[in-house]
Design goal:
- Its EC number is 6.3.4.5.
- It is found in: Cytoplasm.
- With 407 residues, the chain is an alpha+beta fold.
- The protein has 3 domains: 166 residues, HUPs (Rossmann fold, 3-Layer(aba) Sandwich), CATH 3.40.50.620; 183 residues, Argininosuccinate synthetase, chain A, domain 2 (Alpha-Beta Complex); 37 residues.
- The chain is 44% helix and 21% strand.
- Strands 3-2-1-6-7 form a 5-stranded parallel beta sheet, sandwiched between helices. It has a 5-stranded antiparallel beta sheet with strand order 12-11-10-15-16. Strands 8-9-14-13 form a 4-stranded antiparallel beta sheet, with no helix packed on it.
- Helix 1 packs across helix 7, helix 8 packs across helix 9 and helix 10 runs antiparallel to helix 11.
- The longest helix is centred in the C-terminal third of the chain and has 26 residues.
- Bound molecules: arginine.
- Arginine (ARG) binds next to helix 4, strand 8 and strand 9.
Length: 407
């Protein structure tokens, strides 16, 4: 008996995959696997109900802890892609690994997803799965299915596809972000209303300040209360979401080159990323901050690609860990007008001296202000010489041109 494990959500795509894996790919048995990375309860209910109606053997794996840990690694790397925090992207390798584990335990020889051939997720899933010997199957992509065809097929086969699914939008939710695309949003000029948002309120005039504590770059407490990563993220999503923090509307350049209009909500992620960067600003030296931007950018790129297990990422994290040793302290964040702005920071590792920088003291420790005079004389010296010679040569050319004109 041949078995195939299917990444299963209970939505239209993955539901039609179940009979197709038997009919078109010849498997005797399909098992569905849903991985919990912090989706709302309703999604599990939908998956469970659909699985039951299909008579599908269904597994639910809780990977929230692993995913939350990865989100926190992304905070240490200040990770964003084209301006938004990585949610979907970071979840995919976690989901893929969990499904692969179930597939191997259950003696499957195939592993399948319901992604189309247009998005990033097919690449992120398969990067993990193709490390194994299982047959990787992508029915929607391989059979060239459209939504319309899927709907007709589901009706014909009497598949349980009604209701649920979050309506007309295509939504992807996990602890770190909620992504909304499709339908009218496919028109980049379409201005969405409040109905696309679920985690964030439209910003009101209200404000609130909270204090976030970091230990070696990891968020550990809010307003003096310690939280485990999952709970900290959930708590902060609610706190910051109430002030409309973390909305993004962007034209995203996907890995295959397509541009796609994406809307996101990510209140906790935005708050933590802003706070973390503010603390780095206090403790890291200018040259560390400058160089770390390059490291962070590379980390983010690998994160976006779903390749966080690449050796490069391990090497980057070596550098990151070395800098994060000192990223311990607290940041005060103010929620205001849809923003989460750092308005105060404190660390015992501050590379800062109020006494040295102050307008009220005459000297910089043992250095007197006059000592800066010599530096000021040198500052911009080469450019002065270069500009003088450019100007002199221009004068000469003007003279020659004028002489030539007179002859
Ligand atoms: N484009 C984003 C990414 O690749 C997220 C896509 C989420 N999918 C959705 N149906 N909203 O990371």
């Amino acid at each position: 008996m041949t078995r195939v494990a299917l990444a299963f959500s209970g939505g239209l795509d993955t539901t039609v995959c179940v009979p197709l894996l038997e009919e078109e790919y010849g498997y005797d048995d399909v098992i569905g696997v849903t991985v919990d990375v912090g989706q709302p309860e309703s999604e599990f209910d939908e998956a469970e109900e659909t699985a039951e109606a299909l008579g599908l053997e269904h597994y639910v794996v809780d990977a929230k802890e692993e995913f939350a840990d990865l989100c926190f690694e992304s905070v240490r790397a200040n990770a964003t892609y084209q301006g938004y925090p990585l949610g979907t992207a970071l979840a995919r390798p976690v989901i893929a690994s969990a499904i692969l584990e179930v597939a191997e335990e259950q003696g499957c020889t195939g592993i399948a997803h319901g992604c189309t051939g247009k998005g990033n997720d097919q690449l992120r899933f398969e990067a993990i799965w193709r490390d194994s010997d299982l047959e990787v199957i992508a029915p929607v992509r391989e059979l060239g299915l459209t939504r319309e065809w899927e709907n007709e097929y589901a009706e014909e086969k009497d598949l349980p596809v009604e209701g649920g699914g979050g309506g007309k939008w295509s939504v992807d939710t996990n602890l770190w972000s909620r992504s909304v695309e499709g339908s009218e949003l496919e028109d980049p000029s379409y201005v969405p209303g409040e109905e696309i948002y679920n985690w964030t309120q439209a910003p009101s005039g209200d404000t609130e300040e909270i204090e976030i504590e970091f230990d070696e770059g990891y968020p550990v407490a809010i307003d003096g209360e310690a939280y485990e990563p999952i709970e900290l993220i959930q708590h902060l999503n609610e706190l910051a979401g109430a002030y409309g923090v973390g909305r993004t509307d962007s034209m995203e350049d996907r890995m295959l080159g397509l541009k796609v209009r994406e809307n996101y909500e990510h209140p906790a992620a935005t708050t933590l990323l802003n706070a973390h960067e503010a603390l780095e600003g206090l403790v890291l030296t200018q040259e560390e901050r400058e160089f770390k931007q390059l490291i962070d950018q590379k980390w983010s790129k690998k994160g976006y690609e779903g390749l966080v297990d690449a050796p490069l990422v391990g090497a980057l994290e070596g550098f990151i860990a070395e800098t994060q040793n000192r990223v311990t302290g607290t940041v005060t964040i103010r929620f205001e007008g849809g923003q989460a702005r750092a308005v105060g920071r404190d660390s015992k590792y501050a590379a800062y001296s109020a006494e040295h920088a102050s307008f009220n003291t005459e000297t910089v420790g043992k250095i007197s202000q006059e000592d800066a005079t010599g530096v000021a004389k040198y500052h911009g010296f080469q450019r002065r010489l270069a500009n003088e010679s450019i100007a002199a040569n221009q004068d000469e050319e003007v003279e020659l041109a004028t002489d030539g004109g007179e002859e």
